Q: What sequence folds into this?
């Protein structure tokens, strides 16, 4: 039986880091196979809904071409991905927020659909990809109704998206430990080898 259409979701692409492993360069704008990393992610997720958000803290004019809206951290010291997720949850227009980092251009439509099917089957629980034995907290789907929980955790000093989602009873979408779709191209060497 074919899949029924999934509800629309908001999508958040995380591109707000300081790029430490890239020598301070803006990772989302680095070229891979002839296009910036963000362009690859944009192509993968554009068809998932009408609410594509990019979390970025610099180069907003460039990122704007790939998003419906931009959000930024509320402090200038690159406080980490939980800051971007908070901003995305606050801006999201749909019931669920699909979160992806900008450095996984190998992710495919099958994996995205599997994430969303499982998330909408248990709509009160966050979903995280689990690669082998490791959680991948930046590959997740979060019910926007939990935005206040993320905000409270942040105000209490938490900086780990994984910890917040586990406390909310996150479900796992299990992937193989060596799944090439989840390869993080987060160093110059990996970008060059891909």
A:
């Amino acid at each position: 039986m074919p899949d029924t259409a999934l509800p629309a979701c908001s999508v958040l692409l995380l591109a707000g880091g300081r790029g430490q492993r890239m020598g301070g360069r803006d990772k989302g704008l680095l070229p891979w196979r002839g296009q910036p990393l963000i362009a690859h992610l944009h192509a993968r997720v554009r068809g998932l809904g009408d609410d594509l958000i990019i979390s970025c803290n610099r180069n907003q004019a460039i990122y704007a071409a790939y998003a419906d809206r931009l959000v930024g951290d509320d402090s200038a010291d690159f406080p980490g991905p939980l800051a971007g997720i908070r901003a995305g949850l606050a801006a999201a227009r749909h019931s669920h927020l699909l979160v992806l980092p900008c450095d996984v251009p190998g992710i495919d439509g099958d994996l995205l659909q599997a994430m969303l099917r499982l998330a909408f089957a248990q709509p009160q629980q966050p979903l995280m990809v689990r690669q082998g034995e490791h959680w991948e907290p930046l590959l997740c789907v979060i019910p926007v109704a939990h935005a206040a929980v993320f905000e409270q955790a942040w105000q209490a000093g938490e900086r780990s998206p994984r910890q917040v989602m586990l406390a909310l009873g996150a479900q796992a979408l299990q992937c193989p430990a060596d799944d090439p779709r989840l390869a993080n191209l987060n160093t110059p060497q990996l970008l060059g080898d891909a």
Notes: Residues 10-193 form a domain with the Spore Coat Polysaccharide Biosynthesis Protein SpsA; Chain A fold (CATH 3.90.550.10). The radius of gyration is 16 Å. The helical segments are 37-45, 60-63, 81-91, 109-121, 147-155, 161-167, 188-193.
